[in-house]
Amino acid sequence: ALRIDSDFMLPFESVILYGEPYVDRCVELCWRMHIQDPPMILDFSSSSEIVDKAMFRLFTRSGEYVDFVVWPALLLHENGPLVQKGVVQPLKSKSTLKSH
């Protein structure tokens, strides 16, 4: 319904023109990974965990504990081999973890 409202859509025209095909391809890729037998796994490590450097590389700073996941790690299947390391942003310091 919002796409029909040209006044609403005008500021978002370029986003839709370029963003929609990207989102469509992302959904298609996720679907293809999911229908594999067994399905591939996107591993989103939860925050406040210790950074697993075998599974993730660090984003813009160093640290021991995960603040947030920038990009998930990709596994061939659940508990399977790593296909691509993910990226995490660590907390600045251990004291930051307590206030998190």
UniProtKB/TrEMBL annotation:
Pfam families on file:
MIEAP
Q: Which segments constitute the Mitochondria-eating protein C-terminal domain? A: 20-89
The record, for InterPro entries, names: MIEAP_C
Could you tell me what this protein is called? Mitochondria-eating protein C-terminal domain-containing protein
